[in-house]
Amino acid sequence: MATVITMPRLSDTMTEGTVATWLKKVGDKIKEGDILAEIETDKATMEFESFNAGTLLHIGIEAGQSAPVDSLLAIIGNEGEDISSLLAGGSSPKAETTSPVAEEKPAVVTTPTADLPAGVKVVTMPRLSDTMTTGTVATWLKKVGDVVKEGDILAEIETDKATMEFESFNAGTLLYIGIEEGGSAPVDSILAILGPAGTDVSGVVANFKVGSAVEAPKTEEVKAEVSTPAATTPVANASGRIFASPLAKKIAQEKGINLSQVAGSGENGRITKADVENFVPGTASVSEVAQAVTQATAAVAAVKPFVPAGEVFQEEIKNSQMRKVIAKRLSESKFTAPHYYLTIELDMDNAIASRNMINGLPETKVSFNDMVIKASAMALKKHPQVNSQWKDEATIINHHVNIGVAVAVEDGLVVPVLKFTDQMSLTQIGASVKDMAGRAKSKKIQPAEMEGSTFTISNLGMFGIQSFTSIINQPNSAILSVGAIVEKPVVKNGQIVVGNTMTVTLACDHRTVDGATGAQFLQTFKAFMENPVTMLA
Fold first, then answer.
1. Catalytic annotation on 510?
2. Last-in-domain residue among 246, 280, 314
3. With contact defined as beta carbons under 8 Å apart, do 251 and 273 qualify?
4. Same domain, yes or no, for 52 and 141?
5. Could you tell me the mean pLDDT of each successive run of 10 residues in the chain, 537 residues long?
6. Dihedral, CA atoms, 248, 250, 253, 259, nearest 10 degrees?
7. pTM exceeds cut of 0.70
8. Which DSSP category does 445 fall into?
9. What's 265's domain CATH number?
10. Which of 4, 123, 199, 375 sits CB 3.0–4.6 Å from 192 for a disulfide?
11. Whole-number pLDDT of residue 296
């Protein structure tokens, strides 16, 4: 019997979806678990798998088209089965396959054919998170004139939460770039135009009405004339500056790489992110070393008494979209939520012994951070007032525990969320944190995985920081700051002995968490950490 597949609701705020790509065609055999299509939601592009087996008998929404949630997406059944009754008005409404993309959230503008030259596709600034209103193009990985294949990465786009790769769902030649590197624009502004090589798209650009791009910041660099399309050595202007993308400069600065030694593969020898990441420092020849030593010796011999002759040097770095949002949200939190701080010192001797024992098991590894997360989750179940959020009319008490774990990334800070943390074991917590932190740093984490936290943990112990305070990650009511484990003299049973301690500080919103409540939470947390066996019960 044929089964009707409808447009799924892939996020809590999704009202319609766009079929980015069909991975199956009518007549194909479908197995349970096969990926049918890639669907653009209001938050991300996600793979949609089939929960049914059979033959794909009908496609209701073509690639590039949008339809409301629950519209007819496809029909799967037995080969040759009559589905005319379903198409005539079965259990699900049929999506209009010729309807244009909804105007509110277009990913690719598909105006009637008469309005666009044949084969031309307008790509707009995507909405890559539920709170994103503008985006910044960090890096273009393609340039005008390049041939783009379906699935190629067009650009890296900074949202309010992360820098994410944006791939093309269409093939063609890149005819126009609407937002230059470093430029910002509202969601749905024209980002690029793809189509057949040589197509005149000036009319399309002039008639495009959704959003307006913000010009990229002016730069003082003057491009040098280069006759070849790609250089094998870095290209500098008259002032000696090296041409490199903003992202390439950031990565080079973090890795301590001298850009003058990096060969640029971009247009006119411009250094790209890939050039920096693939750079392998060369080895100087004996003659080069000898020449350098000779020059240094001569310079020392000729040195004159030191006279201060420095010059003031400043560098202006454009704030990324993520940095702007971090500044805005933390300022709002600090100046609207009355923060107070509670600090407690933990005896970590039993935790160290327990961790050594656990990690002695085959294929098992947990960190102290995993233990902190587990202890916090269990303490929150006993003190739900700390697991709350403030609203003007009421205080929301969360009886589920979703812990956000602050992760430092290239452009700032993101907070992946462990859903239902209290139900996870130590090893599950460790594996989940490692996976999400890795994907956050490589820009592969999805926006939905950074939403819904009820409590946050920030750990700087691995950097040797013994004690610090954090700003609450709203709408949470509290955040726990975790310091390093320190070996020092402590008093036990009236004797001074060597012990291991760790300091944690709980920042609370006084509107929802009173001092006594916060203190009781820390006492429970301390009991779990100092007796880890109680977390395994």
1. yes
2. 280
3. yes
4. no
5. 82 75 92 84 71 90 89 91 80 36 38 65 77 84 91 82 77 92 88 91 77 43 36 46 67 82 71 80 54 60 64 84 81 92 97 94 91 97 96 94 92 90 94 92 86 96 95 96 96 94 97 96 97 87
6. 20
7. no
8. -
9. 4.10.320.10
10. 123
11. 61
Q: What's the token pair of residue 456?
A: 């946050």
Within 347-418, residue ranges assigned H as helices are 349-359, 368-382
457-484 as b/e: b if 16+ CB within 10 A = bbbbbeeeeebeebbbbbbbbbbbbbbb
User: Do 372 and 504 share a domain, yes or no?
Assistant: yes
Q: What is the C-alpha separation between 265 and 231, in angstroms, rounded?
A: 6
What DSSP line would sit under 300-362, residue for residue? Answer: HHT---------------PPPHHHHHHHHHHHHHHHHS-EEEEEEEEE-HHHHHHHHHHHTST
Q: Is 112 helix (H, G, I), strand (E, B) or coil?
A: coil
Task: Looking at the structure, tell me whether residues 396 and 499 fall in a common domain.
Answer: yes
126 shares a domain with 81: no
Residue 139: give its domain's CATH number. Answer: 2.40.50.100
Nearest to 178 by CA among 220, 138, 122, 217: 122
The confidence score (pLDDT) of residue 299 equals 59
CA 15 to chain centroid, in Å, comes to 23
**Residues 50 and 197 grouped into a single domain:** no
Sign of CA dihedral 112, 115, 119, 122: negative
349 is catalytic: no
Report how far residue 83's alpha carbon sits from residue 91's, in angstroms, rounded to the nearest whole number: 12
397-409 as b/e, with b when 16 or more CB fall inside 10 Å?
Answer: ebeebbbbbbbeb
CB atoms within 10 A of CB 189: 20
Find the domain containing 63 and state its range: 3-87
Domain count, the chain: 4
* Contact status, residue 482 vs residue 504, Cβ threshold 8 Å: yes
Residue 241: both structure tokens together: 């500056």
Tens digits of residue pLDDT in 42-85: 656 677 878 788 999 999 999 989 889 888 999 999 998 999 88
